[in-house]
């Protein structure tokens, strides 16, 4: 379980993933001594790809070290929060909250969710110098180990180790922190998946170059400007009130026929205002005054062209002309009885279409000396192309959290409305959403809101480090010790609000909680010392007790591709409890009697629905004799009608 991981990590190198891909697809390019024939490789590519020898790339101290971190297996296990997960609102939930380092969390997720995530939103540390970011991915390599694994000199290896151990907040440290996480995140995305990353001026330029390298420059979509209504006071120069949301897709080729559209921001509010005032008997002129008052607020200022009101709603007079349009006909203005002025560019509608629009009262006549226009109404469903300038007021969410928790438990939460908008134009009703810098769980809140408003079934996966809150803060005094506790409690509080406001709601408003843990030093010593012996009659270690059955089974189910919300079926063989899921049967408990092995073989032979191809054993629980007895008896199945070939997998 952990020892197997140690063995894999011993042989890890910065380019192991790339070499594995090359060996799989271009075996002819590798010589007998294992060296790579680059000239032969170029021949494979020459017909379709122009191979260039010059270009530019992003370089920073520790880049190869960051690439090495991608290839290392996580040495953590997944501990389910059984008390929380068995609550009525959580036991069937497909939402996931992981407490732990997101580097480990992403590696665990890739075992089951690679290529399955539609949308990732993250709000990583901005490296402002005051946001608390320090590099802390320390894997305790020696200078000699790094020199060998990265093929670098001792001096450079020492500089990298110094960077990892001193808690640096340099640009190189930030890039070294982000690189492996983005590399792993990319592999989570489906082919039509998309990632959004909030950032400010401190690392925006570096982030763009980093994403170009990891995600591909050709998959860049936009660098959206987020106007957040906060002013970072620089009184001598310029007050900065914007951040950025960087957007890339996994593959633009997979989005050729996709059109992202979003509800025009504020239109629902304007339409609702008109409907409410109309019901209250307001005149159209008075309604227009109220609407124009709303336009004075930045949130609605972009709608100021919708500056007319009639009995049907708020509208703007849209152009009815087009270049080179016909000029040999017109329509009659019913208010004056005169012919309408023909547009200089010509009509954009046929005569018949103009008559139809007249009949439907969709022509605005206005000044008799100018051409008429088309009444383009604001309504509650006004989809439009997504603009790259986003106005979302962060202070609104700060106030919301203050009211939700009774005080300031979290600094600078991201606007839930912004993430809702992202989800509305990028996702479909059953997609998976990931946020691996979960913070106050704004993304989870947005997912619940979108599901409620649009009757969707989006699922979220949150990852958050159990980072300690500041002592003497309101959060600390309110009983929260770590950031993840705040995030989980926000989800619970917001789900309760949704339930209160939607009495008959049937949506998934719970979540499963898992904690990533490293084995203790005592457990590590026992793992190192463990060696199965032929003459050993009983197992006398406590390794299984230290991990726990739920942890072993949960970690293995995820490793074998079944995800974190799946349950294994418990099956008894002569009183011995095993765990069955599709193609895998897990044997974890010690003391496997011969009677249990016999019943297992009989079940294989007689139960047509029981055909696990893999029997997985917790190696620390079994004697050498028990393992050999099981192997011998299972070989009988090769001679039965099923002709089964069982993969016997002993994990340490």
What does this structure look like?
- By secondary structure, this protein is α/β, with parallel strands linked by helices.
- The protein is built from 23 helices and 21 strands.
- The chain has a ten-stranded mixed β-sheet with strand order 1-16-2-15-14-3-4-6-5-13, sandwiched between helices. It has a five-stranded mixed β-sheet with strand order 17-18-19-20-21. A four-stranded antiparallel β-sheet has the order 8-9-11-10.
- Strand 5 and strand 6 (240-249) form a beta hairpin.
- Helix 15 crosses helix 16 (442-454) and helix 16 (442-454) packs parallel to helix 18.
Layout of secondary structure:
Layout (H helix, E strand, L loop, with lengths): L2 H8 L5 H10 L12 H8 L17 H9 L5 E4 L1 H4 L10 E4 L2 H12 L3 E6 L20 H8 L3 H12 L5 H18 E11 L4 H13 L3 E13 L7 E10 L11 E3 L3 H13 L4 H12 L12 E3 L2 E6 L32 H9 L3 E2 L8 E5 L5 E3 L3 E3 L2 H12 L10 H11 L5 E4 L6 H13 L4 E6 L9 H4 L5 H19 L10 E6 L3 H9 L13 H5 L1 H11 L9 E5 L2 E6 L2 E4 L6 H13 L7 E5 L5 H11 L12 E5 L1
Helix pairs in contact: 4-9, 6-9, 7-8, 9-10, 11-12, 15-16, 16-18, 22-23
